[in-house]
């Protein structure tokens, strides 16, 4: 049996978000609503609803004159996201180590097994496995409010990860290190060791691509 058919606004939200994360709509790009609605085969009303949702997630900027544009990438936002994740990701990992059950451990192990090297020219889809692992950790915290906040932060952070992967690091070196970090975090959660899980997650966030991008954007080297 097929799943429920998404509404037109849900369809528009998913497609516009995909284009932003894939940089088909780059930072600062204007969004012509009539043209885009025509491309998607919908009216401007559901598209406008989708853009409002994306604006709430920080991916789109809307003006009072119905103009829309993809939000620019800035050092200030990247730093804000990094600051939040340095607090919330370790907190979630510690809760996961305290509260995880057998289904959570199975989900974490499955996500860890599914991690794969990131291509030299990564896309939004190539980050899915990385996100799936972190989402499994978040869900093991059994704190719905925290999970929702972290999911929202992840959407905004993905644009900076893509920037870092495409322009700033050697993907192979990065992937091997990150995979080892993920495995250590998974082991700490499975062992029921909150302090170690928090510490490892903090180190993981501190070494993340967002930190590199902050420095690069501040230097104006893009």
Descriptive account of the structure:
By secondary structure, this protein is an all-alpha fold. The chain has two domains: 63 residues, Winged helix-like DNA-binding domain superfamily/Winged helix DNA-binding domain (Arc Repressor Mutant, subunit A, Orthogonal Bundle); 144 residues, GntR ligand-binding domain-like (Four Helix Bundle (Hemerythrin (Met), subunit A), Up-down Bundle), CATH 1.20.120.530. The chain contains ten helices and two strands, in the order αααββααααααα. A hairpin with a 5-residue loop joins strand 1 and strand 2. Helix 4 crosses helix 7. The longest helix has 25 residues. The chain is globular.
How many distinct folded domains?
2
Uncertain runs are none
Strand proportion, as a percent range, falls in: under 5%
Number of strands: 2
Give the key terms.
222 residues; Arc Repressor Mutant, subunit A; 2 domains; two-stranded antiparallel ribbon; 2 strands; globular
Q: Layout of SSEs?
A:
Blueprint: H1 8-21, H2 33-40, H3 44-56, E1 60-62, E2 68-70, H4 75-99, H5 102-114, H6 128-140, H7 144-167, H8 171-190, H9 194-206, H10 209-218
């Amino acid at each position: 049996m097929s799943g429920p058919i998404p509404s037109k606004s849900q369809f528009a939200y998913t497609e516009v978000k995909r284009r932003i994360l894939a940089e088909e709509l780059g930072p600062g790009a204007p969004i012509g609503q009539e043209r885009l609605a025509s491309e998607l085969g919908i009216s401007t009303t559901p598209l406008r609803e989708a853009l409002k949702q994306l604006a709430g997630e920080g991916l789109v900027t809307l003006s009072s004159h119905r103009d829309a544009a993809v939000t620019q990438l800035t050092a200030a936002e990247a730093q804000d996201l990094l600051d939040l994740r340095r607090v919330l990701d370790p907190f979630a990992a510690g809760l996961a180590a305290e509260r995880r059950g057998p289904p959570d451990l199975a989900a974490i192990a499955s996500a860890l097994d599914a991690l794969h090297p990131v291509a030299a020219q990564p896309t939004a889809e190539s980050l899915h496995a990385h996100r799936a692992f972190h989402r499994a950790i978040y869900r093991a915290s059994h704190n719905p409010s925290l999970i929702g906040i972290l999911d929202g932060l992840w959407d905004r952070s993905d644009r900076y990860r893509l920037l870092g992967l495409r322009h700033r690091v050697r993907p192979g070196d990065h992937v091997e290190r990150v995979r080892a970090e993920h495995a250590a975090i998974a082991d700490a959660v499975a062992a029921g060791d909150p302090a170690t899980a928090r510490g490892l997650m903090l180190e993981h966030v501190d070494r993340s691509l967002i930190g590199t991008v902050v420095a690069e954007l501040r230097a104006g080297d893009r």
